[in-house]
Amino acid sequence: MRLQALAYISNPTVLARVACTDADERVRTYAVNKLSDQKCLAEVACDAKDWDIRKAAFNKLGAAQLTGLAQTAKDPAVALAARVKVNQETWNTAFKPGNLESKGLGNVLGAVALVDTPQPSSSSVVAACHTFIRRGDSSRIPELKDLLTRFGDKPLAEDYLNCGQSTLHQAGVAWANSHGFAVGSGAGSHRVKWGEGR
After folding, report:
1. Is there a single domain that holds both residue 188 and residue 127?
2. Are 55 and 114 contacting, i.e. CB atoms less than 8 angstroms apart?
3. With contact defined as beta carbons under 8 Å apart, do 194 and 136 qualify?
4. What is the pLDDT of residues 157-180, one digit of tens each?
5. pLDDT reported for residue 159
6. Which positions of the chain have pLDDT values less than 50?
7. Domain that residue 85 falls in
8. Which residue from 87, 140, 92 is spatially nearest to 114, judged by alpha carbons?
9. 120, 144, 160 — which closes off a domain?
10. For residue 8, what pLDDT is reported?
11. Cα–Cα dist 115/167, whole Å
12. pLDDT tens, residue by residue, 147-159
């Protein structure tokens, strides 16, 4: 019923509020897909709690709005993602060891998860995911799940399955099922453990 009602709403402020706050994922998705106002899309990209909605809004932004976000976004991940999209910064620069620490590993991973193109190298993302898992920081779990989907391979899925964090384990199961692998029990991967680097 709310989806049908949303078809008649054109006010971008209302659509942005629905995209950020509605309890129904289908309604949030419909609202962000319908939204075209750049200012409201930027607000959704910065404020939505649902990671998929933030990403959908971010990837609808034009160069002018992205340039503004690169300078003004309060979330460092959004600012970095915007800088990469408008060629003010590259992934190679962001992933350099000194830069990775100064920007914050979580912020770099958050930025990578927002940007569809350009993409960093898979090896850089996998190494960063391993480091983040070792830290045991749950603040970027939605992004880690997205990164497994986009950059993952069988070894990274095994790492998620066996790292000791339940949400990442479930993401590993989903990745394995969608790629035709069966998940069994046994010793498994021991490359990374959740929080071992604290």
Report:
1. yes
2. yes
3. yes
4. 999 999 999 999 999 999 999 999
5. 92
6. none
7. 62-120
8. 140
9. 120
10. 87
11. 22
12. 999 888 899 999 9
Domain count across the chain: 3
Contact criterion met (CB below 8 Å) for 137 and 106: yes
Tell me the pTM.
0.83
| 142 & 70 share domain | no
Q: Are residues 49 and 66 in the same domain?
A: no
Q: 110 and 129: one domain? A: no
Q: Please name the amino acid found at residue 176.
A: A
Question: Is 149 found in the same domain as 186?
Answer: yes
Angle of the 122-135 helix axis to the 105-114 helix axis, nearest 10: 130
Domain boundary among 60, 79, 107: 60
Cα within 13 Å of Cα(57), Cβ side: 34
Cβ atoms < 10 Å from Cβ of 61: 22
Radius of gyration of the chain (CA): 18
Statement to judge: residues 77 and 54 lie in one domain? no
Structure-token match 């479930």, residue found: 170
